[in-house]
Specification:
Length: 66
């Protein structure tokens, strides 16, 4: 994930507009944090903007729910 972020920056993306949520960041990838991040992104996106959502992960089942 960090390498993807660095590649985006090297390609000209503004680091201030990249939101990284991983186990290694202060903001952890909980369901609530992911939904909040997506809502914030949706609210900040304007017509003709380029939006890239990159997800990498795996699922887990607990208590009969995934």
């Amino acid at each position: 994930m960090e390498a993807t972020r660095e590649g985006m920056i090297a390609g000209g993306f503004d680091p201030a507009r990249i939101r990284l949520v991983t186990d290694n960041t202060e903001e952890k990838p909980t369901r609530a944090n992911i939904l909040a991040a997506l809502q914030a992104i949706a609210g900040a996106t304007e017509r003709d903007d380029l939006l890239l959502v990159y997800y990498s992960g795996h699922g887990d089942a607990a208590g009969g729910e995934s």
